[in-house]
Amino acid sequence: MSIIAVARRYAEALADVAINAKKAEETDRELLILSELFARNRELRTMYSSPIVKRKDKEAVLELLIARLKPGAITANLLRTLLQHHRLHNLDVIYREFRREMDRRQGIVQAEVTTASPLDNSQQNMLVAELQSITGKKINIEYKVDGSLIGGAVTRLGSVVYDGSIKTKLKAIQQQLKTAE
Question: What is the CA angle 168-173-174, rounded to 5?
């Protein structure tokens, strides 16, 4: 089973528990902090992915981490479960899937919009309104700027990409000219 499929199972179960306990936001904040900690600390990731490091040593470090960061019971239990099943080094993937699951349950769609130059507030508001009317869901947009697009925008909604950039249109024209020769 792929790590994404495994992470999705943990994420769905975690979302169920966190929502039922009314601790979803707290769990989200704690997992964000922990996944960033693991992302920044290569030694930590290496230790938890290594079969050479003894389980009791991994448990001792985890308990120190829990004592120091003081996460809630849900997060602490998740960490212990991940350690038990040799998945703690995949915390970043599990957190990402947890975020997706929470967004899905709240009717939120993540979007990424890349433009050649920054959009002003009114343009951003118009884009949000348009995407919400298309999807029928709340939209959370991450804006990026890429000058190589020349103009237009590339919008990614989940796995669907809408490419309205001038760069792509010019490439298409160039390809047509090459095949016409």
Answer: 95
Side-chain-facing half-sphere of 1: CA atoms under 13 Å: 7
Residue whose token pair is 């990026």: 144
Q: What is the pLDDT of residue 90?
A: 94
Q: Which of the pair, 76 or 178, is modelled with greater confidence?
A: 76
HSE-CB for 168 with a 13 A CA cutoff: 13
Q: How far is CA 161 from CA 91, 104, 130, 142, 158, in A?
A: 27, 19, 16, 14, 8
3-104, CATH topology level:
Peroxidase; domain 1 (1.10.520)
Give Cα 94 to chain centroid, integer Å.
9
Token pair belonging to 7: 């992470």
Tokens 């929470």, residue located: 102
Nearest residue to 26 via CA among 69, 62, 72? 72
Q: Can you give the pLDDT at residue 180?
A: 79
CA dist 82 and 68 (Å) reads: 19
Residue 124 sits at the vertex; the CA angle it makes with 118 and 129, to the nearest 5 degrees, is 155
Question: CA-CA distance, 79 to 73, in Å (whole number)?
Answer: 10
pTM, 2 dp: 0.79
